Amino acid sequence: MAHSRPTLADVASTAGVSVSTASLAFSGSGPIAEETRARVLAAAERLGYSGPNPLGRSLRSGRSGIAAVIIGDHLRRSFRDPVAIQVLDGLTGALGQLGLGVLLIPALPDPERPTAVDPLVESAAMDAAVLIWGFRTDDPVLAVLRRRGVPVVVGEGPSTTTAPVVSIDDQTGSAALGRHLLELGHERVAVVSLPFDAARRCGPVDAARRAQLDWAPTRHRLLGLESVGIRPTVVMEAEASLVEAGREAGLRVLQGGPGERPTAVVAQSDLLAAGVLIAARELGLRVPDDVSVAGFDGLDLPWLAPDVLTTVVQPLQARGEAMGRMVGRLLAGEEPEDMVFDVELRVGTTTAPPPPR
Amino acid sequence: MAHSRPTLADVASTAGVSVSTASLAFSGSGPIAEETRARVLAAAERLGYSGPNPLGRSLRSGRSGIAAVIIGDHLRRSFRDPVAIQVLDGLTGALGQLGLGVLLIPALPDPERPTAVDPLVESAAMDAAVLIWGFRTDDPVLAVLRRRGVPVVVGEGPSTTTAPVVSIDDQTGSAALGRHLLELGHERVAVVSLPFDAARRCGPVDAARRAQLDWAPTRHRLLGLESVGIRPTVVMEAEASLVEAGREAGLRVLQGGPGERPTAVVAQSDLLAAGVLIAARELGLRVPDDVSVAGFDGLDLPWLAPDVLTTVVQPLQARGEAMGRMVGRLLAGEEPEDMVFDVELRVGTTTAPPPPR
DNA sequence: GGTCTGTCTCGAATCGATTCGATGCGGTGA
DNA sequence: TCACCGCATCGAATCGATTCGAGACAGACC
């Protein structure tokens, strides 16, 4: 007591009341005379007691006040994508409303021990977990959380789980974009895709690779195009949703003469699309005169000015907030349904009819 | 016991041992027969017991295994800056090594109640806190943490505190950049600065505003230029370290004819510099022929290609890691000194001698 | 005066683990 | 044979709070 921080018991004895009364003075859950309360608070002030220790409180209540946000990648890679940031921002806001803090866990899969899981996933205190990025259908993280009995919300990830999923209507949005390109008259459409899985290869996709496709947004956005009858001349898998990766993929996709190369490139994210724009510029191609470029996400990319990207707008922050609210419902004992947000095609200046032959 | 999750006591009684022995089987801190241990683990497996409850463990050990990372802004604003992301990435990595999780707290100052503090800062369980962004010298967050007795490491922030600070040598780096410009022959140098404080105005800085300058990197980078004799023709404060803000400030700074406008613009971050480049392009100015532009941070900005920004490179991830290690030393009871990283001038293609008159 | 009601306070149990000191036991050396 | 030692195990205290049921007391009413 001399050295360590004061406890509620110290405060109580200083104030001349019992521990339970002192507890009441802080929590306010129960009848207490105003005068007594003031005496307790004064004693606390005097001792430099700064409120009930959260650890003791947690143990008793069984709740830690923490929601884990688990990401299957390095932060420096995932969070260079403004998409992730905005979702996270909405999520922390909504969780904050619930009184929950956000424990950030970058749960990198270890290629050498694929079933191993970050120790924090295994043992950190958490009332719920949100998987927002980069998980496989059979991800061990999911298994560990289930074993621990932690309620889980899945942001972007496998849909074949027992956890509720908050996602966007990738497929419909992609289909709308596809129709837009068809109406403009495009026949040779190339796709620069998001990664297929954690392997993060970069290169053209063949049938074998296509069969491995495990990442939900990638698959749905591809299906959307195909659903309106577009057969991509090539699907070029990018290493990550980053400008640099889009540029690299763009350079490979846009090779060839006017008769061979695609007249339109659909990138599966705005950052990839920005990279493709840069690649086109480097190759001396005019957008949209020589080639049309479209993205996905609806980011605000001022440095593309004066170009305005044709893209599919998704509600990023709202998606994060919805994930947060779903955590709340899970904790309230409900069994929420999956949730799908609508998206909207926004036509900019980067798509136009294909060049005449 | 029927409904709730099994506890160590359940496992112990199932295995036919005492609770303390069962604890030993999991923690491994103490002698235990291999055979007994196996029996305990088997019982745990049978009951679906997934390891000791972190809350109980925490209460006993007095440690939560959590380090708070506190940011004085919305995530969607701070984290759109790759600088913040890379620092955070290094930080989480280093804290992970220590077995600490990262509790992310966006502690937005409430303009109506400036002394109020996010409830999580007030009451979340944490073994240490790292303030990485956007704090004033007399920030109430710091006061609350001190009252709670939480060890604090300051990333970018007030240097006049009792907490150790991990920073970079802004001033020397800025001075090197200043000398580079002087050697090229520049006389009219404008500055596009980082925000001065949380107020986030955007506009030219007058003496009164200059006196309010409370944000360490802004001040030091300004001092560095002045220390080599550069008197900026104007200091234009930007709203945030973002491309769009840099563009806006750049448009205002680059007004005027060849004889009036600055021949060089020093932006206090690479994102701001990128915005200035865009502004110059929009105004029909060639870089570096008509105007030189320099930044700070040393980011990888592929979409500026073929330009390569002249900038001051700072070790972002290493800085984050150092902050993490400093937390470790604080927890070990040491009293670490402040830490300052060196930076390095990297000359790119965006600076050249001023145009002849 | 006695009883009842309502308000305030208290003691003790509880949350789930860790840890320290004690105990029992088989084996060794004198 | 006895004292002693080390290993494995156990019991009980402990961490810091919350909460429930019980008790004390004052005022109101019959």
Question: How would you summarize the topology of this molecule?
Answer:
2 copies of one chain form a homodimer.
Chain A: H1 8-15, H2 19-27, H3 34-47, H4 54-61, E1 66-71, H5 75-78, H6 82-97, E2 101-106, H7 119-123, E3 128-133, H8 140-148, E4 152-154, E5 166-168, H9 170-184, E6 189-193, E7 203-204, H10 207-212, H11 216-227, E8 234-237, H12 243-253, E9 264-267, H13 270-282, E10 292-294, E11 311-313, H14 316-331, E12 339-341, E13 344-346
Parallel strand pairs in A: 1-2, 1-3, 3-4, 5-12, 6-8, 6-9, 9-10
Antiparallel strand pairs in A: 7-8, 11-13
Helix pairs in contact in A: 1-2, 1-3, 2-3, 6-14, 9-11, 12-13
Chain A binds a DNA duplex (30 and 30 nucleotides) through residues 7-9, 17-21, 23-24, 26-27, 29-33, 36, 52-62.
Keywords (chains A, B): DNA-binding, Transcription, Transcription regulation
Protein name (chains A, B): LacI family transcriptional regulator
InterPro entries (chains A, B): HTH_LacI (IPR000843), LacI/GalR-like_sensor (IPR046335), Lambda_DNA-bd_dom_sf (IPR010982), Peripla_BP_I (IPR028082)
